[in-house]
Amino acid sequence: MPNVKPLEISEAYLADPFPKLAEMREHDPVHWSPTLDTWIVTRFEDVRQLFSDPRMSRDRKLSKLYTPPKPGTWAHRFDSESFANMDPQEHRRLRNNIAAGFKPKAVARMEQQVRDVVEQFAAPLRGQTDRVDLVSAFTSPIPNTVIGRITGIPPYPGDEERFCDLAQDVIRRFVWFADSETRERGERALDELAEWVGKLADERRHQRQEDLVSDLIHTDEEATGMTNDEIVMLVASLVAAGSETTTLGATTALRLLFENPEQFDRLRANPKLARNAVHETLRFDFGAATGGIARFASEDVPLRGKVIRKGDMVMLSSAAAHRDPERFPNPNQFDITREPGESLAFGHGAHYCIGSNLALQEITFILEAALDFLPASTRLRSDEIEWETIGLMRRPSTLPVSFT
Ligand code: HEM
């Protein structure tokens, strides 16, 4: 077996992690990085299996790398009490409460709402002749507004912009290897968001409305209604998990289409391929350098001749798994006509993404609307894209296009 150098994070790696991920997948599929103090697992079968392995916990407190937030903050409570970190039985109970709201039927009911939000941001872009940043004008505000409509937050008109900023900051606290300043910014945002949600829950307790917070409080059997604190943590999870991820998915889909004009032409010729193009985007490139989800071993786990020790962190690299040639023929080809195979983009097992149907619907509508307002002559100004790196995540924070 060739000697695989330990993974180091460099500018070059962040710009194009795929050659190194391929090397690891082929020659050292359970790779130890001493710099990151984590294992990186890269083969599809292994990633899939570890996602649902009960010895692989989501509880970040098990990790040696964990820095506890200040006691008394919502971040501190989040790490101890959030449903994402609960034992499987409690997790299932709370997850069922919320997952019912995101099943395909429920999402189909939201369809018009999502279309309206997409149209709200697409309308001003029709007939543009100038340059536009598609992130700030289009792919960023849509998922934030959708999650806002669903949860009923922000509760008061005029708070939308602050809500977008908070949503962007909240997710920073969940990105591994982010610096301490970024993490603390995320913790402050979580506190502010929690205060809003708490107030809203108080109001909805007295006066029910047509939103998720009301539904969670006023259940059919009074006894199972959720407490304000449970609601705060759940809604914060939705905001953290559902806004920036969808923005990144939509932004990446548009970027890849501009970078692969023959694929863009195919989509223009057959807009029905939009949903397929979304699946292919999430397979081909989902923004993170290891493209991974973290787990922590709750006991020793032997795998492919290595032993992952209790307390070790493991990055399950779906980015590498999605380029595994054992699973995807011609994996380095971005091809929107590819039959979508099994995907790990939304995870697998007990924590499988609750919002996957909503996310797929939103990004599909975003692409359909973009086909309508972007004339074929639109050019992406690739050299002017601003890239942001948070921990191991590198993403475009702008997508400037000129319409001529
Ligand atoms: C392209 C967009 C999205 C991607 C790629 C994505 C990806 C993921 C992944 C990989 C997980 C599993 C995490 C793990 O196993 O540790 C997850 C969980 C989750 N996602 Fe998403 N997600 C997206 C959009 C959304 C949306 C729109 C919502 C909600 C409105 C959402 C809500 C959640 C929640 C609540 C969980 C935690 C589930 C649990 O722990 O049981 N996500 N997501």
The total count of helices amounts to 17
Number of strands: 12
Residue fraction in strands: 5-15%
Domain module count: 1
CATH top level assignment: Mainly Alpha
Strand order of the largest sheet: 1-2-8-5-3
- Relevant CATH superfamily: Cytochrome P450
Shape: globular
* Separation, N- and C-terminal Cα atoms: 52 Å
* Rg estimate, integer Å: 21 Å
CATH architecture: Orthogonal Bundle
Structure description:
By secondary structure, this protein is α+β, with helices and mostly antiparallel strands. It has a single domain, classed as Orthogonal Bundle (Cytochrome p450), CATH 1.10.630.10. Helices cover 49% and strands 11% of the residues. The protein has 17 helices and twelve strands. It has helices at residues 11-15, 18-27, 44-51, 74-81, 88-99, 104-122, 134-139, 141-151, 160-172, 180-206, 212-217, 228-242, 244-259, 261-269, 274-284, 318-321, 356-373, and strands at residues 30-33, 38-41, 56-57, 131-133, 292-297, 301-303, 306-308, 313-317, 379-380, 387-390, 393-396, 400-402. The strands form four sheets. Strands 1-2-8-5-3 form a five-stranded mixed β-sheet. It has a three-stranded antiparallel β-sheet with strand order 4-12-9. It has a two-stranded antiparallel ribbon with strand order 6-7. The mean pLDDT is 87. The structure holds protoporphyrin IX containing FE. Residues 58, 84, 95, 147, 237-238, 241-242, 245-246, 249, 293, 345-347, 351, 353-355, 358-359 line the site of protoporphyrin IX containing FE. Protoporphyrin IX containing FE binds at residues 58, 84, 95, 147, 237-238, 241-242, 245-246, 249, 293, 345-347, 351, 353-355, 358-359.
